[in-house]
Amino acid sequence: MPGKTYSAKSPSGQTRRDFIEKYPIFLDTSQNATAPLASFGYVDEGVLSNSGFTSFLKRYRALFAALGRFRLVYVAAEHKPFRRAERAFDRFGEALEDPEAATPGGQTGEYFRLCRLFETRQYGQLNKAKLDRLRDLSQRFQGSAAESRFQQWVKAVESKARLGRVDAHFEAYRLPHSYEIFGIHPGPRADA
Description:
Elements (H helix, E strand, L loop, with lengths): L2 E5 L6 E5 L6 E4 L8 E7 L7 H17 L1 E8 L3 H18 L8 H14 L8 H14 L3 H19 L3 E8 L18
Parallel strand pairs: 4-5, 5-6
Antiparallel strand pairs: 1-2, 3-4
Helix pairs in contact: 1-2, 3-4
């Protein structure tokens, strides 16, 4: 389940909270499908960057992949963020389809790809230079957080191979009223 772990004064020292955003989640049965469509809401708070939305998608990644079919309704007070959010969602959907596409960049990503080739015994794709590079990167990343991230990435790749295609839908919904009283100032409305 998507959530966060917080430090706590409890004996265990940590508290886990799921669905921390408290955004709407519902099952849509109106499509006459064999199974209801799991639908998730995301409310844009009027922040100028997309970082909150991409963090939300990362937190929900495992759930979305396990569902295999879902809809995300992006809610905002104005149209401006829709295009940027839809592009982020499309990239996210592509990564759900091909978890190896979500490989980190730089040396970490190179390490992940080479380790995966080695662990899956794809020796034909590993020449001497790549094996030497894998050895060097393994020494560099040994015992680091990268190893834990690599294991998570491998699990995502393997579960995606088992689950198959993900049917991801994006919808944008513009709020019909001005919410300036709450500190959101979307500017002049074109349709007002």
